[in-house]
Amino acid sequence: MSGRAGTGDRGSRGEPGRGEPGWGEPGWAEAGRGEAGRGEAGRGEAGRWPELEAALAVVNRDVRATLTLPGREPLILMVVPDPDGFDGDQVYVAMADGRSHGNPVHSDDLEEGAEPEPGDAAAVLTVVAEAAQETLMELLWQVWPLCREHGTGMHPRPAGTSGDWYPGETAAAGPPVWWCRGGRAGDCHDASLIGELADTLPGKERRALRRRGRR
Question: What is the helix (H) or strand (E) element at residue 155, kind and residue range?
């Protein structure tokens, strides 16, 4: 995966810098919405990126279980055409208003005839979880997700990895999880499968989450 990283306040896609014209004005965040495909940034057309959409639905379960987003709207796939016309559309994980931060979640240097999405479902889920984490942490200014046991930020990893694991290590073949480094004792652990953070909540919070889901 490759792409262009965001550059802070002004660099978060779709977001004017604070204090600039448009910040806070009604409708400013709607400029990039609508279906992409006419040279403008827009929400990804349903069914165009099925693997990415399925992975984002899983990640959104964790978002819903642990965060209250503005308007409680889930994260979306945002499609941004390459301004130079070389790399084609760039797909990002974004807030519902179109703002995002970090790298795209699909390959932007495709060879002719190559698939635009990774073929491995675990790889797709990991990439989408990482992108969601970048967007949420940058735009909400808070660590997400947090390990309830240690109060520290977690990261997507294959299940069963040790503290010295590194991306690309072939020995790690478990399903994607939220991994916590642990405390000073080095008690790193897998906190939850990605998409199953609700199971780590106390019973009262789980029941409240289920009640919200029925509304």
Answer: strand 155-158
